[in-house]
């Protein structure tokens, strides 16, 4: 027995060391950590428990029978982050370029099934070149099993994908089926067809980074929610995100003891937000002022910048924030912003995270590009997501809220539990200038001084239908609050709604606009 145990220990050490120093040096030369170095950064020290470390593939064609390393190019198991369990699998690019074969896929299936059964989050560290060509259709079937599990687990446990290398072909679909995608600039790429195929088919010459690098997916396509300059900072933020998420959809997000007073006055807001609705300001500064310790974890910070989405704490409790950003496109809603908001709202609703909507929106972005691109259909995604959400929902109108965009941004009429407004709010079908031009156009045209008449009618419309208390008088706003009391008001409201329970209609599922 002692001899067998010694043999076992030596074999396990050999497995942990990987394919050798030369392969490790090549990995480091690319600016990349090895698979086990990544796990050391991601997980609490000494917490990783590996499964199927002895697994080998069974392929016998194209010389594969002579290359049968243990782990088969993927390290899988469970560990802890902030002392909470997570399941994890991580590709080892040093073996077969991290390509997925039958045994490789079955290991991933194993940890995904365990994550679902145990009700714990799943994190994937992706650094693989796609399906293992030498194994043919069995590799493709392995991807199918992963996709099916991604969908089955969606809304059940949080799924996080971390892109730390190439991800081509069908392999790109599993990450986008998960809840969050992290990418490291310079080493991670995602694309359906690589640069060589693009050149052969279209004649276009393009680099892998410009085709599907982190910056492209973080700013243009919207595939990556988070982009980082290096692996360590990326994995550290994965740990931070995990501190704000529940383990599964049957739990509430983890709470902490707050050091930031819940009744802290927000005096700076009086000067931060201009009362004139056309003057831009930074909504991010408003968010940082009202949340605990100014900590806001923003999602898709560099894509669809006219809408801000992210997680923060209020008196130690997690909440999701959706906010118009007047500094970018005046905070209008467009196709990208609608998709961004809808996706984030659905995630928060699935995992019991309350929603706070900070509204300062002039409407939907006009133009043929938006109309032909389907702004009606895409805007309806945001509307559908809000209407379907059953978590606590609080709306705060800072300044303007015009037209359909006011309704879509979680108004009382579509189910917000509580609606507040600052005394600078303007809620109307459209701005006073546009409204006066429509209602009084003949009168203005016939006047001796059209500009004077237009100004008179604009003031009249604003005084009658757009004064700060108009919506409150009709029960569409619950209270007009002093901006300095914003944080305290939101915390009191979240406390009231924490035990909210809403049973929806009995159905298989809805049919949202896609």
TrEMBL record:
PANTHER family: PROPIONYL-COA CARBOXYLASE BETA CHAIN (PTHR43842), PROPIONYL-COA CARBOXYLASE BETA CHAIN, MITOCHONDRIAL (PTHR43842:SF2)
GO annotations of cellular component type: acetyl-CoA carboxylase complex
Official protein name in the record: Acyl-CoA carboxylase subunit beta
Species this chain originates from: Nonomuraea cypriaca
Domain CoA carboxyltransferase C-terminal: 261-496
Occurrences of domain CoA carboxyltransferase N-terminal (ranges): 1-257
InterPro entries (UniProt xref): AccD/PCCB, AcCoA_carboxyl_beta, ClpP/crotonase-like_dom_sf, COA_CT_C, COA_CT_N
Entry's Gene Ontology molecular function annotations: propionyl-CoA carboxylase activity
Coiled-coil parts of chain: none
């Amino acid at each position: 027995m002692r001899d067998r145990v010694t043999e076992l220990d030596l074999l396990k050490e050999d497995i942990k060391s990987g394919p050798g120093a030369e392969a490790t040096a090549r990995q480091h030369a690319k600016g990349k950590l090895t698979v086990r170095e990544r796990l050391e950064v991601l997980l609490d020290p000494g917490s990783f428990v590996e499964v199927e470390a002895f697994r080998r593939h069974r392929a016998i064609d194209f010389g594969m029978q002579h290359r049968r390393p243990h782990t088969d190019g993927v390290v899988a198991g469970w560990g802890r982050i902030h002392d909470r369990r997570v399941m994890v699998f991580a590709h080892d690019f040093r073996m077969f370029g991290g390509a997925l074969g039958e045994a490789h896929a079955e290991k991933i299936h194993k940890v995904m099934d365990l994550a679902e059964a145990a009700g714990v989050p799943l994190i994937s560290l992706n650094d693989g070149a796609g399906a293992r060509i030498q194994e043919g259709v069995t590799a493709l079937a392995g991807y199918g099993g992963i996709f099916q599990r991604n969908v089955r687990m969606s809304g059940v446990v949080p799924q996080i994908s971390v892109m730390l290398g190439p991800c081509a072909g069908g392999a790109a679909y599993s990450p986008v089926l998960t809840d969050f995608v992290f990418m490291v600039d310079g080493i991670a790429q995602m694309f359906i067809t690589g640069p060589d195929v693009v050149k052969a088919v279209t004649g276009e010459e393009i680099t892998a980074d410009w085709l599907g690098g982190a910056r492209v997916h973080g700013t243009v396509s919207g595939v990556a929610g988070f982009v980082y300059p290096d692996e360590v900072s990326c994995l550290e933020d994965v740990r931070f995100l995990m501190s704000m998420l529940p383990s599964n959809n049957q739990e509430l997000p983890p709470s902490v003891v707050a050091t930031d007073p819940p009744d802290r006055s927000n005096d700076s807001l009086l000067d931060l937000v201009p009362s004139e609705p056309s003057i831009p300001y930074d909504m991010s500064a408003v968010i940082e002022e009202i949340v605990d310790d100014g900590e806001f974890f923003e999602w898709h910070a560099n894509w669809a910048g006219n809408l801000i989405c992210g997680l923060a704490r209020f008196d130690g409790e997690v909440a999701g924030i959706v906010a118009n950003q007047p500094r970018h496109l005046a905070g209008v809603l467009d196709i990208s912003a609608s998709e961004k908001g809808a996706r984030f709202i659905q995630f928060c609703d699935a995992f019991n995270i309350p929603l706070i909507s900070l509204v300062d929106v002039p409407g939907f972005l006009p133009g043929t590009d938006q109309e032909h691109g389907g702004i009606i259909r895409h805007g309806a995604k945001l509307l559908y997501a809000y209407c379907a959400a059953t978590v606590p929902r609080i709306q705060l109108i800072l300044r303007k809220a015009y037209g359909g965009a006011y309704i879509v941004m979680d108004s009382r009429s579509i189910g917000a539990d509580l609606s507040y407004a600052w005394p600078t709010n303007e809620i109307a079908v459209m701005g006073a200038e546009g409204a006066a031009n429509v209602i009084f156009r003949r009168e203005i045209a016939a006047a001796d001084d059209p500009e004077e008449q237009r100004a008179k009618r604009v003031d009249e419309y604003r005084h009658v239908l757009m004064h700060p208390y108009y919506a409150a008088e009709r029960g569409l706003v619950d209270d007009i609050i002093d901006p300095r009391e914003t944080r305290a008001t939101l915390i009191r409201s979240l406390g009231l709604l924490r035990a909210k329970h809403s049973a929806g209609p009995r159905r298989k599922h809805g049919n949202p606009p896609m």
